[in-house]
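Example record

The entry below shows one chain as it appears in the dataset: sequence first, then structure tokens.
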Amino acid sequence: MCLNSNAKLAYRFSIAPMMDWTDRHCRYFHRLMSRHALLYTEMVTAPALVRGGALHLLDYNPEEHPVAVQLGGSDPAELAAATGFCVERGYDEVNLNVGCPSDRVQSGAFGAVLMKSPDLVADCVSAMQEAAGDVPVTVKCRIGVDDQEAAEVLPEFLRKMQAAGIGRITVHARKAWLDGLSPKENRDIPPLDYPLVHEMKRVFPDIHLSINGGIASLDMVEAELAHMDGVMVGRAAYHQPYDILGDADQRIFSDARACLSREEVVFAMEDYIGRHVAAGGKLAQITKHMLGLFAGQPGARRWKRVLSEGAHKEGAGFALVQEALPR
């Protein structure tokens, strides 16, 4: 599967980049439930790749396509070099993070703090596009930060991105408060402003705009697609993956093929888990992403308990996963 074969289809629905969550094991697991959703890596910082040589951070499974990599950084030359590494490895898209509010990101002068420096962001994405060639470069941003007036800041930011040649942007429909709120609080406390993001689609009809933030069900995804070009789902897709991804291909992408059942998804992970454990990996590195598979179903509590208590133990393998299955 290759994103470029049907780019507009994949852009309709994506799973957000989430630090410590959307690693390669998570993405492989999610891909079993949806053939079409666009999957994003955790944010990878450009300095880690360019200065630190940590190219292993770009490893992924070929089965993950369509898959996009998200970069963090604020130096155009460094981001261009990092983009080159991503393109060499075959990613379908390179995304620039202009939305993460963590202290670590602020200290590196990138993430949401870049909403205050749209001209610098424009320089960054211009350099990235030159390095990316035919691979799309995109941006994920907030509606503003701190005391900025979002209704003024966001359209100006989008204009500068459009002038820099960016054709697709995902907007997290909350401000980021860089002073006074933790990263966790920034995911919940700032109010959502869907109407503002909807208005941006009317103002910028030529930009492919996706909305992110607070999307908790496929019903909400379908409702937002009435206003927007695409929808990005974050925590709900992680904590209730089957509820979000299980019917997505049929409902969002009009693919009549049946999705795997929850239990079929488990057994489809068997070979992957076996290879990982045989190579010296820990079962828990994979199963931590699978804990929500049976959310809301009979046996869900036991499934989580058996995996949480046993997957970290020496020698744990797929037999434990089978034992945990709801009965």
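Notes for this example: Residues 1-5 have pLDDT under 50 and may be disordered. Strands lie at 13-15, 38-45, 67-72, 93-98, 137-142, 168-172, 208-212, 230-233.
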